[in-house]
Fold this sequence. Notes:
GO terms for molecular function: transcription cis-regulatory region binding. This is MYB protein. InterPro entries: Myb_dom, Myb_TF_plants, SANT/Myb. 39% of the residues lie in helices and 3% in strands. With 223 residues, it is mostly helical. The chain has two domains: 3-78, Homeodomain-like (Arc Repressor Mutant, subunit A); 89-214, Arc Repressor Mutant, subunit A, CATH 1.10.10. Strands 1-3-2 form a three-stranded antiparallel beta sheet.
Amino acid sequence: MLSQYKGRRSSSMCPSTMGRSPCCEKAHTNRGAWTKEEDQLLIAYIKAHGEGCWRSLPKAAGLQRCGKSCRLRWINYLRPDLKRGNFTGEEDELIIKLHRMIGNKWSVIAGRLPGRTDNEIKNYWNTHIKRKLIARGIDPKTHLPIDGCSDHSALSSDRQTVSVAAAPQSEETLQPSVENRLQTICFCYRLGFQGSEACSCHKSYAKSFVSFQYPPLEEGQQA
DNA sequence: AAAACTCACAACCGCAAATCC
DNA sequence: CGGATTTGCGGTTGTGAGTTT
């Protein structure tokens, strides 16, 4: 999912329904694959009213779906900025590198791949990349050689020092602490993709919903 | 030609976090 | 402040399409 969807609570929260009626009434909702008509209703509604308040959206849009289902359909399939199509080799490698560093944080990984969704990346990982890594002799879970590798230190240090700030933060909270001398920069920068299309560090990190803290790479160290 | 099997991906489920009242 | 509710995330499942036997 892209950065604008980051954070447990967003401005899209609907105040009028917050903390009231029970969650989605499943008794009278459609399930399974979406029809073209349902897609059109959802697209038309969001074009007219924008995203937000998923709870009340289905009724307002004339859909017999729960809000959760509408949100998922829009984010994963109907959004106009989705890229679709095959993943490029560069995207493959970026996913592998990010996964090695942060694990199954699909939404964070998706935030670094413009036009890709967390669900898409998760599926792609499970169907393609896992096998690709196994074929390379790499365990897709640990990113270590399958035949056993003694050097766990690099990976563990990566994992330990990466902290994920999942929610939007103020500029102050994103400032690196002086004490631990960490640098706060975007992943692409650390991975050497700065300036690429996937890199967002040309934008102020204060505006980014996701940031990471980790020590700067030593000279010659691989990300 | 058709049954069995495999693959890819859309959609669902359950939980945790965020927020409101 | 705590309970109630919504939203968002990651894991899992269902199913249609493609391939093999």
